[in-house]
Amino acid sequence: MSTVSNPFDPDPETRMATLAAMRQRCPVQPMGGDRGPYLALSFDAVAAGLRRIDDFGGSAGQSGLPEERKTIAGILEPRHGQIRRVFNNVVAFHKSQAIEPYLQQLATQLIASLVARPEAATVGVDVMKGFVEPIPPRAMARLAGFPEADANRYYEWGNACGEAFAKAVADNQSLCMADAVPDFTRYVDERINERLAVPRDDWPNDALSRFLTLPVEGEPLSRESICVQVLFMIGAGSETTRNHLGNLLYRLATRPDLYARLRADRSLVDATIEESLRLDAPAQFLVRDVLHDTEVGDTAMHQGEKVIISISAGNHDPAVFPEPADFDPDRSNGRDHLTFGHGPHICPGAALARLESRVAMHALLDHVAELSIAEGYEFVHASTGMMHGPRELFLRLVAG
């Protein structure tokens, strides 16, 4: 496939070819002249942009908003760290592990039902709709303390929110998440009202209770701020893990040799998950503001400029990951990928995402002896180069 000059092309093969050519020329490149925005491409440059939180911060579409109206991704220190403490009380390792039995039961029921369909081993079935998609939003509903029956609406709301933010960024405007999808905001606000109507001593120990009670900068979060953070948690926690699981199953369906190895040796599951995260990062880019004059490598940057951090380019840097386009779970440094970020602001939901992936993989291995791409299926990518994952994924599943 020929290389084009658009590093944000929605086709990942074209995009990666362009990013690789740009990275070879320079690890950090200005996109709009000598004063940026800049595109960070090498592993070291991407890691620096993520790790150096005093130099780079903020998020796309949130510049200029009041702190109360920003998601955690757009908030700077020290407020960021205090809100992160609330997130860690919800989705960190020791918290997310509490829902593992529920996730195991859910994943088992979903894959068993899918494999039992008469067309599963012949024509094929959509594993996104029947297996992958229910898991992340139900996990988020469980952690948030929201009705699980409502979880199937999270993707609809999340997609609408993504479209609204994409338009705002394209128009060089800022947008509060609470304004992006009014139906989603009303839904969360109703859950807040329901919780506040119950005596505090009877509140469950879930995400909503944590956001309502834990202080930030010495004060309780406002209702608007709680709503914004919950919206972000549900949206990000559902869509990114959905994309990752879809990418992982697609790769396995094209590698029957690897799937057979996994069936024979479950100890390879974690390394396979990490390699999928490296190779197919669900979120391909992040945007940061330059907080003061600084430099990355030999590239000088100035306060107020933007840096587009290419997670996928960093994960495909051959200086760190030899033969980066290969799906190789035997890499000794596979877990060093940048998909969850790097440094102090690493994604607080990383443990939960890994848990969901691990549970889904073991359920799949328990019930499916072989999987392959259904005849005529073509991987339809996300509509922009920002996110990477299949809209649908038709696979043939042989029970066993």
Q: Can you put this structure into words, describing what you see?
A:
The protein is α+β, with helices and mostly antiparallel strands and 400 residues long. It has a single domain, classed as Cytochrome P450 (Cytochrome p450, Orthogonal Bundle). It has helices spanning 12-25, 43-51, 79-91, 93-96, 100-115, 127-132, 135-144, 154-170, 177-180, 182-196, 207-213, 223-253, 256-264, 269-279, 311-315, 350-367; strands at residues 28-30, 38-40, 56-57, 125-126, 215-216, 219-220, 285-290, 294-296, 299-301, 306-310, 368-373, 394-399. Strands 1-2-10-7-3 form a five-stranded mixed β-sheet. Strands 4-12-11 form a three-stranded antiparallel β-sheet. Strand 5 and strand 6 form a beta hairpin. Helix 7 (135-144) packs antiparallel against helix 12 and helix 8 (154-170) packs across helix 12. The longest helix is centred in the middle third of the chain and has 31 residues, at 223-253. The radius of gyration is 21 Å and the shape is globular.
